[in-house]
Amino acid sequence: MAGLESTMELNNGVKMPRFGLGVWKSDNHAARDSVAAAIRNGYRAIDTAKQYGNERGTGAGIKLGLEQTGLKREDLFVTTKLFNGDQGNYERISKAFEGQLKDLGLDYVDLYLMHWPVDKTFVESYQAMERLLQEGKVRAIGVSNVDNQRMAQLIEAADIVPAVNQMEFNPTNQEQEVLKFDSSHGVTMTAWSPLGGGNSLKNPVITKLAEKYGRTAAQIILRWEWQRNIITVTKSVHEQRVIDNSHIFDFELSDEDVQTINQLDQGKRSLWYDDFKWHNPDGPYGDSVAAWDDSNDEL
């Protein structure tokens, strides 16, 4: 039966839940509370990153959620990401990863992603991640924000094909060429920003379908992504919205309506590699972890 415990098998046999909670732009306290709420309400996949500055809060939320539900660590699927500033050789990455485990309060993570393919280091960095996998510190490795050219470079140099490529994916940005290329190599796509930063919620096609099905605009989009077989990471710091976002398993979009949403694709990304500061000095994303007012507070 479809639901929050439904999984998709990755190319190394590991089963990943198809629907999870992300904590981008959440401070540590908000991450703790939303993660715990998600676990209480049936979510089994949690997605964070060192870049977000909230791995401690995410770990606190995991601990709290497990305590409140009686679940075990192995009942959850936890993803975090290699920080751009930590990329390089194995020794550098291994040390950074141990720090991430400490912040998360975990002995291992289920999926470790390269957050961005940083020039001159992303191949070496991925090879270091392969060693973490071989050492049993992670159950699967993958990448994020990787286009076809760089994915081809990684596959050529790697011993282990990435299990996942996490990309911005929503009605107006469907990454058709990346999805086609990755699928042909056994790489599973995961969607970040599945609601298009909220912009897709206002699309008249989506709002009309929401009225037709008696659902929220978010539920229409998330159900569409489910029927497209895209693993989805959605984000909210409000418990009721966390709950509402997961109520997509008791209805189905018609094939015609799926195709209608497919036609909304404009290839419009909210941010992309060429805007990234490590490649463009004027870009907005550099070698720094997001700083929050509560970063040093007790959790």
UniProtKB/TrEMBL annotation:
Residues 21-265 form the NADP-dependent oxidoreductase domain. Keywords: NADP, Oxidoreductase. The keyword NADP applies. Coiled coil: none annotated. The keyword Oxidoreductase applies. InterPro entries: AKR, NAD(P)_OxRdtase_dom_sf, NADP_OxRdtase_dom. Belongs to the aldo/keto reductase family. PANTHER family: 2,5-DIKETO-D-GLUCONIC ACID REDUCTASE, NADP-DEPENDENT OXIDOREDUCTASE DOMAIN-CONTAINING PROTEIN. This is Glyoxal reductase. It comes from Lentilactobacillus fungorum.
